[in-house]
Write a structure and sequence with these properties.
About 25% of the residues lie in helices and about 30% in strands. It is α/β, with parallel strands linked by helices. The strands form three sheets. Strands 12-15-14-13-16-17 form a six-stranded antiparallel beta barrel. It has a five-stranded parallel beta sheet with strand order 3-2-1-4-7, with helices on both faces. The chain has a four-stranded mixed beta sheet with strand order 9-8-11-10, with no helix packed on it. It is globular. About 45% of the residues are buried.
């Protein structure tokens, strides 16, 4: 049997993961990561890290496994939070959870576990790993979790073969209610604890307050763009994918000023809360932000054409294949199922590789495509690759 270091987070999923591994006969060690100290912007009622640690310790004691603690907050700040601030400052929409898994859980944390003599690291993610042998070489495949409602493979879309080599996902074949049942039967302290929400290791935050740690508030104007705006009719159904991947470009002359805001970098495309403008038949949605001019553009109603696009682009250097042997060459096209955010149902799309990047052409227009988001593409249950949306 192997030595497995489990990332005990203080939640029910990692607790059951540790239990299952011990039941399988592995030598299990619980390792708790402290990755964030500052509570600025954290919403009241969100469990701070020390509560998480207490629950993790209680689980380790119940399972009679060693418990260790490691402070990775400096690496987390530098490799995840600073990245997040930088992306918002540029008017992009980052996904810190994807970076947290790539840079912290399966990099810094993995290295700490290997120092402790681990053969593998395990987490409570709802996803699965498969091994295949091709030409004498082992290939690791990342699969969606069996619980389609909790599938977290999207958050692991940037993992490499080397990272997957060491990874175990003990609850990937289980449904969430079954995980809760096991925790309850084993009298684990986390059995009825609520799932964590918000930013990985930071928690649920008031985003503008959180971002104001580094990004200054700056008053600007909100302009409304009507559905009849002339730019929506310029791109026909037979347009080239390069045209379809371009976001709409607005100027203040294209719409009417209807309000003010505290900083365009605090908002993202598709957002409807936090604008402070009422009295409308339908909600207002952000359809574009201009951080250079500090202007937000909005449209009324969920069906506003400014919310939807048919295509997006990923720069060549941002294209990631979980199995590098599957990478596409210039001029090649393939069909995949794609999502651009966690929990979004998979969307049918054509991937087109060109010299200037990878284009994703959806069968149906997609709502709220924003620069900085990760697009992940699947071949059935297998997550094949991912990339950062350029604009």
């Amino acid at each position: 049997m192997a030595t497995v270091v489990v990332g005990l987070s203080g939640g029910v999923d990692s607790s059951v993961a540790a239990y299952l591994l011990k039941e399988q006969g592995h030598d299990v060690i619980g390792l708790f990561m402290r990755n964030w100290h500052d509570t600025t912007g954290t919403l009241e009622g969100d469990c701070p890290w020390y509560d998480d640690q207490i629950f993790a310790e209680l689980v380790a004691k119940r399972l009679d496994i060693p418990f260790r603690f490691v402070d990775l907050s400096e690496e987390y700040r530098r490799r995840v939070v600073d990245y997040m601030f930088s992306e918002y400052e540029q008017g992009r929409t980052p996904n810190p959870d994807v970076l947290c898994n790539r840079e912290i859980k399966f990099d810094v944390f993995l290295k700490e576990a290997l120092k402790m003599g681990a053969d593998y690291v395990a987490t409570g993610h709802y996803c699965r790993k498969e091994e295949q042998t091709a030409d004498g070489q082992t290939i690791y495949r990342l699969l969606a979790g069996a619980d389609k409602n909790k599938d977290q493979s999207y958050f692991l879309c940037q993992l490499t073969q080397e990272q997957l080599r060491y990874a175990l996902f003990p609850i990937g074949d289980l449904q969430k209610p079954e995980v809760r049942r096991i925790a309850d039967e084993q009298h684990l302290a986390t059995a009825k604890r609520k799932d964590s929400q918000g930013i990985c290791f930071v928690g649920k935050v008031d985003l503008p307050v959180f971002l104001q740690q580094k990004l200054a508030a700056k008053d600007g104007n909100i302009h409304e763009i009507l559905p009849s705006w002339r730019g929506y009719g310029r791109i026909g159904a037979d347009a080239d994918v390069e045209q379809l991947a371009q976001p709409y470009r607005y100027t203040v002359r294209d719409g009417k000023k209807i309000g003010t805001h505290r900083g365009a970098h605090f908002y993202t495309i598709g957002q409807r809360k936090g604008l402070g403008i009422g009295g409308r038949k339908e909600s207002l949605f952000i359809i574009a932000t201009d951080v250079e001019q500090n202007v937000i553009y909005v449209g009324e109603g969920d069906s506003h054409p400014g919310l939807y696009r048919r295509a997006l682009r990923v720069l060549p250097e941002d294209i990631h294949w979980v199995n590098p042997t599957e990478r596409m060459v210039d001029g090649e096209s393939r069909r995949y199922q794609v999502r651009i955010r966690y929990r979004q149902p998979l969307q049918q799309a054509l991937l087109i590789k060109r010299a200037d990047g990878l284009y994703i052409l959806f069968d149906e227009p997609q709502r709220g495509i924003a620069a900085g988001q990760f697009a992940a593409w699947y071949d059935g249950e297998v997550l094949s690759g991912s990339g950062v949306i350029v604009e």
